[in-house]
Specification:
single chain, Four Helix Bundle (Hemerythrin (Met), subunit A), mainly alpha
Length: about 180
Amino acid sequence: MTPHAEPSNFTPAQREGLGTRRADQDRTLDGIHRLEASLGSAAPGREPQWLRDVLGSLEHLVEAMREEQRNAERPDSLLSDVSRTQPRLRNRVRGIRAQYGQVRDAVDALCHELTARSEEPGADVADIRQRLGWVLTMLRHQRSRESDLIYEAYYDAFNTDLDVDRADERGGEAH
């Protein structure tokens, strides 16, 4: 994919919203990767330590998701801008926000459940991996829907791609 420059007709608030969204997504993606690494580490014979590592990574993801949701619900967020400026997309924005809340609630519930079970011997590693894998799949699905919605809204509004040349933005490091 060839990166494109940000549309020059973005308002400062839209540029700030885009930057906040990128930072939120990066933070949440870091949480996802940390959790995946913890889930993929060896567990046999070290289940209590494995579960502590998974819980630490899960708590990191929960906090990243809370921050991302707080920012997405702000009146100056990209989702709020889409809802305000493109009435035909308002219901999809509501749906994205509701779905994100459901995913966050599922992650919170699993975190609480696993914390309570962490004191019990014999963690069911396969079950925990599978259940958290489902939650990560739900999160990826939700993130893709949100990205598609924002892209569609801004492409319609500005007739240009949203992608910024991230290699220039990060000193040559392509993403």
